[in-house]
Amino acid sequence: GEGVNVSHFTADPTAPTMMAIVATPSRTEQDFVIYSGAGARLSPDDLSHDYITDTDLFIYGSVTLAGDAGDTLRQVLQWIHNAAGQTIFDVNLRPALWPDLDQARQCIDACIETATVLKVNEVELEFLTGQTDPERGIRKLLDRGVRLCCVSLGAEGAYFKAGHISGRVPAFPVEIENTTGSGDAFVAGLAYQLSLQQASIDDMDGAVMTEIVRFANACGALAATQVGAMSGLPSLEAVEKFLQMN
Questions:
Q1: Which residues contact 29 (CB under 8 A, 6 or more apart)?
Q2: What are the tens digits of pLDDT across the range 208-237?
Q3: What is the pLDDT of the chain when averaged over all its residues?
Q4: What is the pTM of this model?
Q5: Residue among 49, 175, 168, 65 at smallest CA distance from 114
Q6: What angle do CA 103, 105, 106 make, to 5 degrees?
Q7: Hey, what's the torsion of the CAs at 53, 150, 133, 131, to 10 degrees?
Q8: Distance between CA atoms of 32 and 179, rounded to whole angstroms?
Q9: Which helix (H) or strand (E) holds 11?
């Protein structure tokens, strides 16, 4: 392949919680090998209930659900649900982490019920709904209680739907170096923009939501111009400058 990126996700620089080895057979393809670390030992007793339930947005994904800390994450989600908190579920499916895909689907389906915002790519949309058409697939996901769903479509941009508003937001044309981390950057941009809003998702109009997703698209596009899942993530200053130029 073209290369291998090694990313450490750490809570403490002396104690890696996870290591991911990413093989990149092409600039737009990745194969992941993920090793659990200290994070696999997390229990609810290790976490602050008040800190978690006071957050503006809590982001979670299926990588943690598939590991030994999955039960802890499910407890956290219940805390947030009970406190009427907002969550973003970035499905981020990694089939190799699961004993079988039926178990993955059942577990992910159950955790969709706690999501305020759901982000999927085209493959994950079909996996969860059986639909390749974003509009039809999103309808099925919104029926499960999700208030905003975004489907990232690579070079085609992103499609979103929330209540009665929906839209397709074009991608930014960039020279792609490697798309590893672009989905993470999209979710980070989405979370940042949602945290700035005074209105709830249900009260936002189409123009505001389009600008939110446009910002997220810019984050994903800039990440694709760099190598490295973490090192390629853009700064806020870089994203704002990029948007001014486009």
A1: none
A2: 999 999 999 999 999 989 876 677 788 999
A3: 85
A4: 0.83
A5: 65
A6: 65
A7: -20
A8: 13
A9: strand 3-12
